[in-house]
Amino acid sequence: MREPLLLPAAALAGGILLSHWSPFSVPEAAFGAAAFLILAIPARPRWLRGTCVLLAVVCCGALVEAWRRPGPPPEIDAGSKEIVLLEGCVVEPTVLSPGREQFTLELAPEARARVSLALDDSPGDAGQAPVALRYGQRVEIEARVRAPHNFNNPGSFDYAAYLARQKIFWTASMTRRSRPKILPGRCGSQFLAMVFALRCAALERLERLYAGDDYATGIMEGILIGESSGLRRVWTDNFRRTGTFHALVISGIHVTVLAGVLLFALRICGVPDLSALALAALASWLYALVSGLSAPVVRAAAGFTLFLAARFLFRRTRVMNLLAAIAIGYLLWDPDALFDASFQLSFLSVAAIGALAAPLLEARIVPLARGMRAISDAAADPHLEPRVAQARVELRLAAETLALWIRVKTRWCEAVLAALARLGLLAAEMALISAVIQIGLALPMAAYFHRISFTGVSANLVIAPLMEALVPAGFLAIFTKWRWAAGLAGLLLKISAHAADWHARLEPSWRVPDPPLWLGVSFAAALTLCAAAARRRVARWPAAATVLALFGLLLWQPWPAPAASGLLELTSLDVGQGDSLLLVFPQGKRMLVDGGGFLQYGRARPLNLDTGEDVVSPYLWNRGLRRLDVVVATHAHADHIGGLPAVLENFRPTELWVGANPSSALEEQAARLGIRVIRRSAGEALDFSGARIEILSPPADYAARQAGNNDSLAFRVAYGSRSFLLTGDMERPMETIALGKPGSLHADVLKVGHHGSRTSTTPPFLDAVSPSIALISAGFENSFGHPHPDVIRRLEARRAAILRTDLDGLVTAATDGRRLWFNEMAWQRGGSAAFFSAGPFFAFPFGW
Questions:
Q1: Which residues contact 582 (CB under 8 A, 6 or more apart)?
Q2: Cα separation, 826 vs 535, whole angstroms
Q3: What is Dmax (Cα atoms) for the chain?
Q4: Could you give the 3-state DSSP secondary structure of residue 210?
Q5: Strands (DSSP E) found in 664-794
Q6: Is residue 88 exposed (0-12), middle (13-18) or buried (19+ Cβ within 10 Å)?
Q7: Which residue of 185, 336, 578, 651 is most buried, as measured by CB atoms within 10 A?
Q8: Prediction pTM value
Q9: What is the Cα Rg of the chain in Å?
Q10: In angstroms, rounded to a whole number, what is the distance separating the alpha carbons of residues 489 and 19?
Q11: What is the predicted pLDDT for the residue at 591?
Q12: DSSP letter string, 350-418
């Protein structure tokens, strides 16, 4: 077998998956591994013995997962609003981001807190100058502590688990104007102290080299050192759209480039090959440490070390075998890495190159590239493949013709044409590799990022080489302080950014919803079969055609999103302290009311979290949605419309409904995207997709000097004998006006106004509505105190079932026109399944 480690690596990963989905205990997994090994000893047929060994490896994977399975997270006995004294060891030094500084404090072994301190904007305020804490300092701080809290929607990123993998179980906010108190003594590792000193020195030097240029400083720190705190989303959006964001984050390619440059320099100095390889491997591990042990860099350093070992033992290295060896070692060390997107993308990209691109290159391009060497040597032609020899002959004839035409020596023309041919073949090789990677990573890119780049092939051809050249230039500037080297790296960065901008203008706004399970399994199986058939001429092209057909189906997904017909559904997403609601109508049309967002007071700071892109859209894609029919912007406050620009861009609704004082920027974006803007006011009524919509507020003659809560577009949706009332943030004045108008305000489901503030949901209004279910959208432990206890008491007094996004996560109410159901994300054990496919609906007793 060409790659004997592939099956053991797959078996180990399979055991980890099996134990993750159906947990085994350590004794159970150990017993299984021992039993299969014992069975393998007397097994006579080779296939039976191999099967027993592989099953033993599967059990070993389950054993590793059970052994390294994390226990319950540690706890601190303090409320989120309680100020406590924390004492610990600084294990990640201070980094600065816009408006705050941040460091990591180890309170106990493997129990850490991510600490942040807001910086005062006032110039010259010495009390708020950043504090430069170093690794190994013992400090005491005053802070409010809370456990990380996720957005509890299906499809949301598990931020708490991401931090837990770094042993971070709390976020701590220092009280304003407080200072860390440095305690006597040192802590931590002396070796890591030296490593972090190198890291901090490199970051400080970059800040001096690019002083006054926040963009270059932030990007260079991310590319070279892996420090992403200075990266702003607006700087990276075009790289994300064009599939070249990997060039902006520290990755294994950095190790490859730096090791190559170092090997070249050592060989020039006359260092023997094995010694040069050993020094390069040592340098790669040092770089991995200085860059914060970034997982891709660690994997690349491990691969380089294995390559060195193979060279030392005079063994031929195969890409897939080397990849399997690294995977086995990494999974034994950290089995949870199997579920990490970075791990999956790193290994799948290399696997795509080794299993899919390499056979094509070896069959087509590599022989031609080798044939372009010593083109003048006609005696070598008979020893080459016929097509290669033919290409050499034609190239010499073209060189002779060119030499006669321009009257220069023939060998000069031969050298130029051969160089151009090699350059063209190199471009073809890079294009093929880029295309194969795009297809090989299509499934995880669709699942994690809902994006497959169409311009990624050409964008990577330009940007990847520029970034590879930037890495050695940037490190040369760090080590030497040479301004010209820093300028060269900055120039390469600017050219890359312009290339990304140009490609982004060509990139279609095509987002991909979560693929159905059958399509994901089929596409993965087709890729595996294509890799197995890559070296077989007969089977190669049918396998490739199958992959391309499924790839097109993955992009297109022409089937409608799953939905239960004949139901009116109202889902309130968990968007923190904001509003975002999805209405699914009985005949299938979909309406999104608001898109969440963040309120900022004082000077607005750039945010790296876009609620529309990172919270609302993933849930809609998780539901299989590609388009919305209507988007409603109830009013122009940021906690309601902050996420709508991304939603309009991603889902291109037919109509945008607005109330009073709408956002001009949102209307301009809608006009640019060809979305019809419709202003709604009280008194309007329309039939919509099997339901009846009545607009209750704002009045047609309503006017206000500035945007406010009472601008909210409020409406009632009726289906059969049941109805839902959505109020936005409208407060007492508008509730009073609505009470004075003819018609019934009764609704079985009420979206409680203004996040449960006591300025809304007044007793008379609540008496008129008389809801059976009340939905409250509020942020977990928010600073506003929403929902107010008075509002909760009013609802409880009227025996309404209260569903809260801050406590229950995503909440849903639905009706078939006669009965009512409701559901909460918190009741679903997995917490990640789609609405209609997981977790029982709870039938509400009213209406039977």
A1: 569, 570, 571, 573, 590, 591, 592, 593, 619, 620
A2: 50
A3: 101
A4: coil
A5: 676-679, 685-688, 691-697, 714-719, 722-726, 749-751, 773-776
A6: buried
A7: 578
A8: 0.86
A9: 31
A10: 47
A11: 97
A12: HHHIIIIIHHHIIIIIHHHHHHTTTTT-GGGGGGS-HHHHHHHHHHHHHHHHHHHHHT--HHHHHHHHH
CA 11 to CA 16: how far, in whole Å? 9
Residues 6+ apart with CB under 8 A from 488: 473
Q: What is the dihedral of CA 614, 619, 623, 628, to 10 degrees?
A: -70
Does a cis peptide bond (omega within 30 degrees of 0) precede residue 698? yes
- Mean pLDDT taken over the chain: 85
Are 12 and 53 within 8 A, CB to CB? no
Q: What are residue 718's DSSP bridge partners?
A: 692, 723
Q: Are 596 and 617 in contact (CB under 8 A)?
A: no
User: Phi-psi category of 396—alpha, beta or left, where left has phi over 0 and alpha has psi -120 to 50?
Assistant: alpha
- The residues near 794 (Cβ < 8 Å, ≥ 6 apart) are 761, 763, 766
**pLDDT at residue 720, as a whole number:** 93
Poorest-pLDDT segment among 41-55, 181-195, 278-292, 388-402: 278-292
Phi, psi of 530 (to 5 degrees): -65, -40
Query: What pLDDT digit, counting tens, does each position of 473-522 carry?
Result: 888 898 888 999 999 999 999 999 999 999 888 888 788 898 988 999 99
Torsion angle of the four alpha carbons 785, 790, 796, 798, in this order, in degrees rounded to the nearest 10: -140
Burial class (CB in 10 A: 0-12, 13-18, 19+), 167: middle
Residue (of 412, 425, 368, 367) closest to 394 by Cα position? 368
Q: Could you tell me how far CA 174 lies from the centroid of its own chain?
A: 28
Residue 298 has, within 13 A of its CA and on its CB side, a CA count of 14
Q: What is the DSSP letter of 74?
A: P
Characterize the bridge pairing of strands 722-726 and 749-751: parallel
Q: How far is CA 263 from the centre of its chain?
A: 35
pLDDT tens, residue by residue, 302-332: 776 777 776 666 566 666 777 788 888 888 9
Residues 6 or more apart whose CB falls under 8 angstroms from that of 118 comprise 99, 100, 173, 174, 176
Length of the chain: 848
By CB atoms closer than 10 A (0-12, 13-18, 19+), residue 724 is buried
* 708: its two tokens: 């406010």
How distant, in Å, are the alpha carbons of 566, 661, 711 from that of 706? 41, 7, 9
Q: What torsion do the CA atoms of 67, 68, 72, 77 make, to the nearest 10 degrees?
A: 130
Provide the CB-side half-sphere exposure for 114 (13 A, CA): 17
Using DSSP, state whether 829 is helix, strand or coil.
coil
- Determine which helix (DSSP H) or strand (DSSP E) holds 842, and give its type and residue range: strand 842-844
**DSSP letter at 691?**
E
Kindly compute the dihedral angle of the four CA atoms of residues 501, 507, 513, 514, in this order, to the nearest 10 degrees. Answer: -70
Whether 449 contacts 510, CB under 8 Å: no
> Over the stretch 796-817, which tens digit does the pLDDT of each residue have?
999 999 999 999 999 999 999 9
> Rounded to whole angstroms, how far apart are CA atoms 112 and 535?
50
Q: Which regions of 499-617 does DSSP assign to beta strands (E)?
A: 568-572, 581-584, 590-593
Supply the DSSP symbol for 721: T
560: tokens are 């409608």
